Amino acid sequence: MSEQDDRPADRDRDERGRPLNARPRDALGRPLRYGAEGVTRQVENLARSPEQALAQAQLLLDAGRPFEAHEVLEDAWKAAPTAERELWRGLAQLAVGLTHAARGNQAGALRLIARGAANLAGYRDRPPHRVDVPGLLAWSAASAEPAAGAAGDEARLRPPRLTTPDPGGS
Prior knowledge:
The chain is mainly alpha-helical. It has 5 helices and no strands.
């Protein structure tokens, strides 16, 4: 039996009629066979404040789920005001880079991390929402060094801190 044989005849669709991907996925976002048990996924297009999006993305990164962190950051990117779009795009690209690294695709990881850093660079002097742009740029540069390692479990990139500590301590 081929994988296509167990696909649902009709695709799920959103309220606008666009197809949804209801296929289960693993923790790194890789599609699984229909009917397989995947991880619980983040709700797409969920309206979050920037602080909520950053906190949720950080929790997911720390839990080893960079693909889902990317989904949260991508939603923030889509909802962001024009002046912040490249910031959120850069953050999402860093998460995708971590996803590639966790999947063993070191070259893809480095490319996406470099793109993310390039998008963040314009916010170095005035980062909104306490995003630690200088720290993320330093993390990105360190990730590009050969010592960051070859593909494999031991060489997975450690997730960065997305924000600076809250000066109010909350």
